[in-house]
Design brief:
- The protein has 752 residues and is mainly beta.
- 12% of the residues lie in helices and 31% in strands.
- It has 9 helices and 43 strands.
- Strands 3, 4, 6, 8, 10, 12, 13 and 14 form an 8-stranded antiparallel sheet that branches. Strands 15, 16, 18, 21, 23, 24 and 27 form a 7-stranded antiparallel sheet that branches.
- The longest helix has 25 residues.
- It is elongated, with a radius of gyration of 42 Å.
- The protein starts with a helix and ends with a helix.
């Protein structure tokens, strides 16, 4: 049976009903708000006949502007509010591609169709005679996941941080510090890099501020030097990322990282809620100087000698010398020199921080603790040097650490053959070893844009000098100073010197006062007792095994064989010695000396009709550490001038009162203790003439100060009395004895 037309229509409506319902549901879910531009476009398109081409979808303000194509006219171009004002192309310019309507097209009223002119995104004029910092949030978009808690709702954003030099001097190697407040995550940027070389995406909540540096150029010239070219004295850093919460999209603070500039509080503008600025002016107490000679200044080949910084003195000096320059790289030599009179440096480790994305391609005379090129491959270096074989690169760390090579690598043609290298990191004082008071190594350093010019040179910063030896001192190093170029002997052997292209000097000084590690005891032929090391000469621990001891009582005299026992095993011998010689003991026995190295100075019998005397010095090492190429400095007064020979030591006289004692070829290694009972030892004898009037028993034959490996040792509390097996006396005790004697004499006279 044939179906009637009415039933056909009804069936068709039933089939279309679900589609209509879904369409209505979709339209309900779409945003109902429209921009002013969209509203005008809708009004314009509603006035056109049904046969005209529909208006294209309007894009967001940050993308391509929307266009509406009437049936008989050129499409009207609508420009976003942040760009050039919109213009409507006349209808006679280009014929419309829309099929003409058979009806007369309705004329579009330009007052209705054209969008209003966009508002500027920043104030027209900001008064700043300095460095103007601005930050503008260009766009924000609500992104998933959606949440009802506005404080955690994520938003994608685009922003522009800008620096404008409105002053009269160039801003060198700038850093822009921004403090964010909405847990922003930076995803990408153009026109700059993160100063600390962090990887993107970067969570800004991990630090109190984010430091940006210009890239590829971190110098901001003046308007005067650029003829007012905005592209040259204004740097824009465009950012994209994610923030959380919709309260105030602007950062909390913006300043320059250079202490020469003081930045005001950020200014807000009511008509521009997404814009802020601050003006940085010179610090009146620390004025910046145009192209001043600073630690990071660009090397100037025409610099006047009067502009070099004066060299400083310190315990250690480090020279960073550029020997040769090439386009994009240079050869540098680093020299570490020990300027201290007696202190040595063992196992040196030198590190610094590159500021311009440099990397070490090759190194000789030392080696880096980390080798590899992964940081270059995934960093800006890999992007620029795309044709380089990075498998040959030595180190790409921002903070490399260099260590000395062992002696057996000196003749290695690949890594050695550098004067003063390859000594296991030991640097002696010059007065101790005039051939080993320096360490040196060379590097081939590659640079990055914009520093590819061969005379655009920067020194690294933040030098740190440490030691692998726990007994060495701690050092604090200054920032590099640009000094007059160093001179080096000509490598060809000619009697001439080659001058470095540029030189920087770093000064490192000892900052700690470590607990002393050695002490001295006295003994002599005229007394059977030994004046031991002081109580707690090297510090006393807070807690120690055994009975309590006194940290203030003077050390007990002991027999000479007790020197071969460690401080914590001498108590029994000291008590027996006190009982034998009827010494008075304190209620609480004194603590030990707790020193790893003991030195005993013993006056031997006078010889040659009392015209000379000998002194025997014994070094006893109770420490677990063995000492290679050890030395002892002994200050003598007045006996120093009468020294004439030694047996068991190589002796060098220094200055007016110091003897430097070192072991012979076969005794330069002082072993550590084994099994806590067998110390390392070395012994030798020094021969002196005796001056007229010299009182050996009064202490004239004893040293005034003793240093072991540059460390000052603790001296005993007094000198031995000249009565055999008697106690000791000090300068104070002599006065007391005189006073007591005087009272005793007066008492006797009264009784008589």
């Amino acid at each position: 049976m044939a179906m009637s037309p009415q039933k056909h229509i009804l069936s068709l409506l039933l089939l279309l009903l679900p589609i209509l319902i879904q369409t209505l549901a979709l339209s309900e879910s779409l945003p109902t708000t429209t921009t002013n531009v969209q509203r005008h476009l809708l009004q314009a398109t509603s006035a056109t006949p049904a046969t005209t081409t529909p208006a294209t979808t309007t894009t967001p303000a940050s993308t391509t502007p929307a266009t509406t194509t009437p049936s008989t006219a050129t499409p009207a171009t609508t420009t976003p509010s942040t760009a050039t004002p919109a213009t409507t192309t006349p209808s006679t310019a280009t014929p419309s591609t829309t099929t003409p309507s058979t009806e007369t097209p309705t004329t579009i009223d330009p007052k209705v169709a054209a969008p209003p002119p966009p508002k500027p995104d920043r104030p027209d004029e900001i008064d700043c005679n300095g460095i103007l910092l601005t930050y503008n949030v260009d766009n924000m978009t609500k992104i998933r996941p959606f949440t009802t808690d506005k404080s955690v709702q994520p938003f994608g954003f685009g922003a522009t941080a800008a620096l404008e030099n409105a002053y009269t001097i160039t801003l060198r190697n700038y850093t822009l510090l921004i403090t964010y407040q909405h847990k922003e995550i930076l995803v990408s940027m153009n026109g700059g890099v993160l100063t600390e070389d962090y990887f993107l995406p970067y969570n800004t909540s991990e630090a109190p501020f984010v430091s940006f540096s210009g890239y590829p150029d971190a110098d901001l010239p003046t308007p005067i030097a650029t003829g007012g070219d905005l592209k040259k004295f204004v740097h824009n850093i465009t950012l994209t990322g994610t923030m959380f919460g919709w309260v105030n999209p602007l950062p909390k603070k913006m300043v320059l990282g250079d202490p020469h500039w003081d930045c005001s509080n950020m200014s807000l503008y009511g008509n521009f809620p997404n814009f802020t600025s601050t003006c940085c002016v010179p610090n009146p107490n620390n004025l910046p100087e145009e192209d001043s000679i600073s630690s990071e200044s660009i090397y100037d080949p025409l610099i006047s000698p009067s502009d070099y910084r004066p060299r400083n003195t310190g315990n250690i000096t480090i020279s960073y010398d550029v020997l040769l320059t090439y386009p994009g790289s240079y050869l540098a030599q680093v020299t570490i020199e020990n300027k201290d009179m007696l202190t040595r440096l063992d196992g040196w480790q030198l590190s610094w921080k590159w500021k311009r994305n440099e990397f070490i391609y090759q190194i000789k005379g030392a080696y880096t603790t980390v080798t590899g090129s992964s940081e270059c491959l995934f960093g800006p270096q890999g992007k620029y040097y795309q044709g380089m074989d990075f498998t040959n690169v030595t180190n790409c760390q921002r903070n490399p650490t260099m260590i000395d090579l062992p002696p057996w690598r000196y003749n290695d043609s690949d890594v050695g053959r550098i004067p003063f290298c390859c000594r296991n990191g030991t640097i002696y004082p010059k007065m101790v070893n005039a051939s080993a008071y320096k360490a040196a190594f060379q590097m081939l350093v590659f640079k990055m844009p914009p520093d590819l010019d061969r005379f655009r040179l920067y020194s690294p910063q933040n030098f740190t000098l440490t030691s692998t030896n726990r007994l060495s001192h701690k050092y604090n190093c200054s920032e590099p100073l640009f000094v007059n170029p160093n001179e080096f002997p000509d490598p060809s052997g000619l009697t001439t010197n080659a001058t470095a292209v540029a030189s920087w000097q770093v000064t490192c000084n000892i900052t700690d006062s470590p607990v002393r590690k050695c002490c001295v005891s006295f003994s002599a032929y005229y007394n059977e007792s030994v004046m031991p090391c002081r109580t707690c000469a090297c510090g006393c621990p807070a807690t120690s095994p055994g009975p309590p001891c006194s940290t203030s009582e003077p050390a007990l005299l002991m027999p000479q064989d007790a020197l071969l026992q460690r401080y914590d095993n001498r108590t029994l011998k000291q008590l027996q010695w006190a009982d034998k010689n009827h010494f008075v003991l304190p209620k609480t026995l004194p603590c030990g000396d707790y020193c790893g190295v003991n030195l005993n100075w013993h006056i031997l019998n006078q010889t040659r009709d009392k015209e000379a005397y000998d002194a025997r010095m014994t070094i006893i090492n109770w420490d677990n550490t063995s000492y290679v190429n050890w030395y002892v400095a002994v200050k003598m007064n007045p006996a120093y001038t009468e020294f004439f020979d030694s047996d068991g030591y190589n002796v060098t006289t220094v200055g007016n009162d110091t003897l430097i004692l070192m072991g012979n070829v076969n005794s330069s290694y002082l072993l550590g203790v084994t099994n806590k009972t067998h110390p390392g030892m070395h012994q030798g004898v020094l021969l002196f003439n005796q001056l007229m009037g010299m009182n050996l028993k009064g202490g004239d034959g004893n040293p005034v100060k003793v240093y072991f490996n540059g460390e000052e040792c603790t001296m005993p509390e007094g000198i031995l009395d000249d009565t055999p097996s008697s106690g000791y006396r000090t300068g104070t005790s002599r006065v007391i004895h005189f006073i007591l004697g005087a009272f005793f004499f007066a008492f006797v006279m009264i009784r008589l």
